[in-house]
Amino acid sequence: ASFDMGGHDTYMHKEMSEQAEAVDRVLRGRIDDRFSTVHLGGLNLDAREARGVRRIKILGCGTSYHAGMIGAGLIEELARIPADAEPASEFRYRNPVVDPDTLYIAVSQSGETYDVLAAVQELKRKGARVLGVVNVVGSAIAREADGGTYVHAGPEVCVVSTKCFTNTVVAFALLALHLGRIRDLSVADGKRIIEGLRKLPGQIEEILAMEPEIEKLAQEYAGAQSMMFIGRVRGYPVALEASLKLKEISYIHAEAYPASELKHGPLALIEPALPTVAIVPNDDLLEKNRAALEEIKARSGRILAVAHQHQEKADHTIVVPKNEDELDPILMGIPLQLFAYHTALAMGRDIDKPRNLAKSVTVE
Ligand code: AGP
Fold first, then answer.
1. 294-313 per-residue burial string, b: 16 or more CB within 10 A, e: under 16
2. Which atom of ligand 1 lies closest to the CA of 159?
3. GO CC annotation: what is one (predicted)?
4. ipTM summary value
5. Is the CB of 64 under 6 A from ligand 1?
């Protein structure tokens, strides 16, 4: 790649640091304050068609799949349309039932991931309507889809996706708001979400400014053999993505579990040598999440919390700015990108070229 590094040591660092402006770009020109909604030009889905959608299935791989999981949550919360995400690679091999009232959404940074493209082609062959949430303009998946929205993250060179993840989730928030305002989301809630979206770039800057503190924490955890990541509902895909980031660039083994599943097995792993990173937003699940921290502490597990306020049971808390509950996952992943970065750096890893990986997987 030949993009300017702009004074950063790695593309990953450059791309993480671009996230406030990238989010600003995906929001620009799309917010309609008069109707408390957003306009997404290329969707090719009019209001009547949007009302007829009974289910949404989101398909992607890796980080894009995780962004799609958060997207599905946003669509269910804001538009009250049943939605879920699935790895595109699995979907296309299980002879899925393709339902005419389901809207399919393919998610991809590159727009060239073969498993996603092949899933889109299979869906189209069966007469489904497929939208794309894609970063690279004019890419294969963007061309193949019936419509969609660009993520506008700008070029992402590092194998490890960071700014595109954040922007993809914001793009899903816009789509969810758009669908919600066509369906049952009130003007007041539309306005509330718009205000939350507008706060994101400034809050991202606040998180990026915490880098020195996060770097120190990363150095403390860098020796770990393995790490556990937990979260619930909105926090679970954040945990999955954070564990993927850590694996990809530090090669530390990491697992992600819903905090609620700990007692069904993984609690057996907890001991001082296995630190846990816990996503603990100030939402309706705060007390449940705190109970999980207590369970871990009772087994002498070390805990790093990402939360909206200091967590007593945690050994360390990264306190992030609060947004609307629905939008919190967008922000909570960002400190953990920095955490993965500095952990890998402390271990002397080649950040921009992790072993065994390619930026886009264009073969099966
Ligand atoms: C992200 O850090 C990964 N390297 C990888 O999981 C990636 O997200 C996946 O291969 C999908 O790529 P895409 O978004 O370009 O389709």
1. ebbbeeebbbbbbbbeebeb
2. 4
3. cytosol
4. 0.97
5. yes
- How far does residue 26's CA lie from ligand 1's centre (Å)? 19
Q: For the segment 82-108, what is each residue's pLDDT rounded down to a tens digit? A: 999 999 999 989 999 999 999 999 999
Q: How far is the CA of 120 from the centre of ligand 1 (A)?
A: 16
